Amino acid sequence: MSNVVTKNPIVIDTVATSGLITKSITPLLAYWVGATATHDLSLTDNAGNLILKAKAVTGTDIFPFPPNFTVGGIACSVIGSGIVYLYVLEEGPYS
Fold this sequence. Notes:
This protein is an all-beta fold. The protein contains no helices and eight strands. The protein has one domain. The strands form two sheets. The chain has a four-stranded antiparallel beta sheet, with no helix packed on it. Strands 2-7-4-5 form a four-stranded antiparallel beta sheet, with no helix packed on it.
């Protein structure tokens, strides 16, 4: 599989250190499935600011974002295993 960035949820399963999403979005929830315990996940905005850093605990981990948490794009610098379903406020397309 490869990253799917045209619809909601955004599907991330491959590292992309430069903008998966280029415009500002408001993430609501990250749902990380199929991850191996102790594997890492890091999502950043396009300026390199960390917006989510996690270590898998179970095969399914859920990470809510604070209300009105708008970021300038999305990049994935680390995904050890599994798939992240990133639900966002806005409708696609996102680039």
